């Protein structure tokens, strides 16, 4: 089966957002847009987990209860933090609901990232980034997070949602403006058959800038290459360039298109 037919069938079977359905009728570039949407969904939910971990690291590094209370008021006004004093301690962040999903991040951590050599957190997030799914279709992701000497985080990830199993590696940086910078690569493999395999590489760092009015971080810069392969085993490549102001440019085969597509890390 041609990959374009696989993706078109996937659009119908999984009831993607209206914007994707509209693109599916637009032109030959539609498979490129759908491949981007599948990829962006994973990047966005991983970015959400990383930003909450950055905030939690600030909380954990406080040496007094007054300090932790201050960080809690600043970053976690709508988040409940629970701790079970196991070994290592188990911290659970109960986040506010989005799209009807209960969302949690569980962190197995005793030490602050970046202060002690060799510290690695194991993190399990559930229910993040499922804007296209039903409330019962919860994503589950496991991250192993460590800090390098230059302050960047190195992240190894595996996970799944209602449609795909996922694996990725990330390098994550947080700059002084509050922006999140993501580098890395990964794969998504569909659970349904015939299988769709999506491999992506961030060729220029994806920069998500904060938008406090929406409590989001919006994609403002970066270059992403996506190679999708169906049962025909013929790879089909898309390239996506962020243009700023919520616009992206996409290239797929001989096609190219520019459109507004808000890729956002949502808290």
TrEMBL record:
Identification of the protein by name: Lipoprotein
Lineage top rank: taxon: Bacteria
Species, as recorded: Tannerella sp. oral taxon BU063 isolate Cell 5
